[in-house]
Structures are given as C-alpha cells and as structure tokens.
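To: structure subgroup
Subject: Chain for Friday's discussion

All,

I'm putting the inputs and outputs inline so they're searchable in the archive.
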Amino acid sequence: MDRRTLLSISAVLLLVDSVLAASPEVFTGLVEGTAAGGFDAVSYFQGGTPRRGAMVNSFDWQGAKWLFATPENLAAFKTEPEKYAPQFGGYCAYAVSKGATAKGDPEVFTVLNGKVYFNFSKSVQVLWRQDVPGNIAKAEANWPKVLE
C-alpha cells in the first residue's frame, strides 16, 4: 500500500469518527437538505455523466429532498425510489463496508447490477474497486446498523 492510499484511508477514518453518530438514513451534507448532492438519482442509470436536479422537480422521500433534471425522471423516481436511490443512503459504500459512515461524493460513483454506489473520494474508490462484491456484502451486513 502506498503513502497516498494510507493518507486517503486515514482521512476517511477521521471523517468517519467525526461524521454522524445517529446518522440520518439519507446523507444530505453536501447540499443542505438534498439527497445525492442535488444530482438527479435517475440520471445515473441513463449513461454518461449524472445531471444536476432542479428544485422545480423535487420530491421528499426518507427525510430528504431529491432533485431531478426532468419531470420524467421525477415521475420515475416517485414510482420506484428504491430502484434509483444510491445504496446505503448515499453514504460512502466503502466506509459502510468498514462499519462506519462517511460522506458519499455523488461524482465518485459506481453503477453495478442496477444499483449506484457512492464513494468518499477517487482514492477511496480505488480501494472499493479492489473487491466490489466483497465490499458490497460487508456493507449490506453493516447497513443500517452503522447509522446508530
């Protein structure tokens, strides 16, 4: 493991300790009160780069405001929010796999098997991608206990 990776892990662990005792189910810390940092959750499944949502296309779900780029994406989310919402409430999937929470960056994501996973940073995403199936299994075993 190189120094940069160790520093990234250390940064995550510091944040994990400071972020959220009794965390809300959906991470809304990037753009206050909005899920997925204000990005359109449906757009992750439309290929390319996710798009920013707009307040005019908003929907409250699980204690957070979700924004969408189009009325069609809003309608799709309203019909099946669990299908489109980022896994683990939009927290860093790698942190959840380690039994903690840290912010998830909506611009550092992986779409796999019809689900979207956020990571804290690109360097943390490198660690996440070393064993995605294993990390998903660990995160699923820890979720939602890590919120307590």
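Points worth raising on Friday:
The first strand starts at residue 54 and ends at 61.
Helices lie at 3-18, 71-79, 81-84, 93-97, 122-128, 132-142.

D.
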